[in-house]
Amino acid sequence: MTVWWAQRKIANMTGKAAIDGLDRGVLLEALIALAEAAGDIVWRHFVEGATVTIKPDESPVTAADHAAEAAILAGLAEVAPHIPIVAEEEAAAGRVPDVGGAFFLVDPLDGTKEFIRRGNDFTVNIGLIEQGAPTMGVVYAPARNALYWGDATIGQAWRADRAPDAPRAAERRIAVRDPHTPPCAVASRSHADPATAAWLDAGGICDCVSVGSSLKFALVASGEADVYPRTGPTMEWDTAAGDALLRAAGGTTLDPDNRPFRYGKPGFRNTGFVAAGRYRPAPLRPFIRD
């Protein structure tokens, strides 16, 4: 799918209605189209090689990050011009809008380090926040041919196979599962730490799958794992789309005190959290330092 095609499709959808005017089904389909288009851009950079630079915070950024984010921003400006957008690379450049009841959180390439080392766990993420909660999200992993999306307000989530620059295959509903005994956790490949290990040990969780980016949320949402603990800091654009997907699939994300995880925090920074399906997690607070 080209960016031009996605933008044309979105332009044809406008005027049908919005979160404050947009029909939710129309908006979700537009977000899916944009994630697909951005994923195609990321994939082309992956195949051809992308220039890497280092940001002031010493994290890497590539030409793929910038190009995919530009495509998503242009599309969102077409379909929902009145909803503010907080995007990773825009924020890194100091361009952060004021946000109110509804805003988008965009991570055009989650797992940049994985992308650079030629792994396959990188994703494109677009999430919608309403009144502090993630309600709509799309996660696309082009190297895995895996596309996920959901709307938490109707409690429905889906997955479809979709190779870069190819049509989307038939969709299927996904949902969280009843917890296994012992539960299976999913954790980060690049952010493993003693606090996470201690929390897992305290809960008797000995089965742990390591995977990168927002795919951790997707594995819980699709019933392939029971819980995803994160003790270290993240940014809200890292988690919004996957969190919305999980909630749409019947799961929940909790803060370190086991309260509902909220968005629109100062600096859009997250502390620890636990994302779970039907598994009931112990509080994370005793295991982390803010």
Report the C-alpha radius of gyration, rounded.
18 Å
Discrete helix count: 8
What is the terminal-to-terminal distance?
42 Å
Helicity, in percent? 25-40%
Q: Please, what is the average pLDDT?
A: 91
| Number of distinct beta strands | 16
**Biggest sheet character:** 7 strands, mixed
* Cross-sheet strand order for the largest sheet: 3-4-5-6-7-8-9
The secondary-structure class comes to: alpha+beta
Shape from CA axes? globular
Question: Summarize this, please?
Answer:
The protein is an alpha+beta fold. It has helices at 3-13, 24-48, 63-79, 88-92, 112-116, 194-202, 215-221, 236-248; strands spanning 52-54, 60-62, 85-87, 102-110, 123-130, 133-141, 146-151, 156-161, 172-174, 184-187, 207-210, 227-230, 234-235, 252-254, 269-270, 273-276.
Features:
32% helix; seven-stranded mixed sheet; single chain; 290 residues; globular
Question: What can you see in these coordinates?
Answer:
With 290 residues, the chain is an alpha+beta fold. It is 32% helix and 25% strand. The strands form five sheets. It has a seven-stranded mixed sheet with strand order 3-4-5-6-7-8-9. It has a three-stranded antiparallel sheet with strand order 12-16-14, sandwiched between helices. A two-stranded antiparallel sheet has the order 1-2. Helix 1 runs antiparallel to helix 2 (24-48), helix 2 runs antiparallel to helix 3 and helix 7 runs parallel beside helix 8. The longest helix has 25 residues, at 24-48. Mean pLDDT is 91; it is low at 1-18.
